[in-house]
Every structure is written in C-alpha cells, then in structure tokens.
Amino acid sequence: MQLRTVLVKLMAQRALHRLKSQPIEPQSYITRPTAEMRADHSADLPLAGAVNFRDLGGYRTRDGHTVKSGLLYRSGDLAALTDADLNYLLNTLHVKFVCDLRNPEEVAESAHRFPADSLGYVNLPIMRASASSDERQVGKALFSGDIAKIDAAFGQTYIGMVDNSAAAFGQALKIMTDPANLPTIFHCTAGKDRTGITAALVLSLLGVPEATISADYSLTNLAYEHVYLTAKNNRTYQATGIPIDVLAPILVAKPRWIEGVLAHIRQQYGSVEQYALTKAGLTPADIAALRANLLE
Residue 130: its pLDDT value, please? Predict the structure, then answer.
C-alpha cells in the first residue's frame, strides 16, 4: 500500500508538471446566451449556500416558444443552504420537488436541509460507476497530464452516463411532467456533469437549439471557483491523497462534452426524443406534458 501511495504521488507530480504548461482558463469556455437565445436574463438568485444554482427559464425554442421561468432550477449540492436560503426557496420560489442525482454515498455524506414535510424528494443516482472502464480511462488520462487525452476520456464518461443511466434520466424527466411537482430543483454535487446532461435533455425535448444548450452548459464556468472548492473539500477525494489540481482539467465545463452527448444521441438513437421514448422510458404523453408544463 505504501509503495502504491508513493507511485500515485510520483504520477501526480509528473501530471502537474505537464499541466502547468497548459493553464486552465474556465472563463474562455463561457458562451453567454444572446437575446436571440434567451428572452429572460434573470438576475442571479440570492442564495448564499447553493453552488451553481440557476433558473432554466427564458430560453427560446426553434418554433417560437419560450421556456417558462420559475419552474425548473438546476444546481449543485444543497447541503449548505442557510435558513434564509430555505425560506427563499420555499416561500418565494415555492419549490415543490427536489430531484437529487447523486449517488447514495454522496447523499449520506451531504444531505439537504429541507424540512421533511416541505416538499417532494427523490434520489435518482446517475451511476457513473456503472461505466468503471470509462472512469479508469479518465484516471489514466489525468495522470498523463495530456489535455487532449483528458478531454476525450472525460467526454466518454458523459456518453457512458447517457447509455447506462437512461432509466434514471427518464424518471427525472417524468417528475417534470406533473404540474404538482413544479417548481422543481434537480441537482448533483457541482451541478455540472449529471445536472448538465439532465438540463441538456429537457431543453432539447422542449425544442431549444443545440447552440443554446451548449451556452447554458458553459455558464457553470461562472461558478468554477465554487466547483473547485466543492471537489477539493470532498472527503472521498481527499482520501485519495491526489492533489486537487490534477483533477482541475475536468472541473471546467467544456461545451464539447455536452455537444458530444447530443451528437452521440443523434447517432445512436436518432434524436433526443427517440432516446427519451425508447431508452429512457418516456411516453408520447409524457413529452407532450413536459412541453405543456414548461413552454409558453
């Protein structure tokens, strides 16, 4: 075990040395939605204890509709919500449901603070561990310090989530088909990967163009420092002893990853709607309800 620890540290040092020549610039990946993409440029929501929390409303669809504001919120971990945050979410935003996309171990370590009787809650794990070979490839790529290899390997984990966790994504989408569950928050730990794919799926089903979906995904980079600290303070990650900056290349939200998901779905399933109807278990009535609830 001691030898393994030494080897890991040596590989981490080598990776960090190589990564220093390829600095991470999260701001360079941001595409701010234009007026053609988004009708509603809402101000930041006043939450002190939520990472990467934002409203998915206001985006324009290809056929002239707009995603309603105040019904779908995407976020990172909600465990640090303050009392004022809870009051705002429950009594100003009137949140009715929380869809937690984290694994059970993450939930046990960092549970949300909502009173048990205040809203609906479901844990729908998007099990990246189900694609363990993909994750091993990410580990190898990270230790190589080669950004191109890291990007390719991490993009493959997104595709693994889409293929292996379709049922969980489908259940999350079904929650949004019931007006009694709206407004809904869906979240994971950083609000980037599992949450980002969920947001891409629902926006695509609503008819939002791919360029807009990519731009929305890129906005997570506005919260990069919070995402970085969330990963750095994660006890599971700390136990590995690996310097956090080895992980930094996959803490950025690179639009190519979400674009790769949408391209894979088109190639493998024909369209996001066909993916939803086949792999994810939705019905035509579910998709109609989603559009009726969330579009204006």
Answer: 44
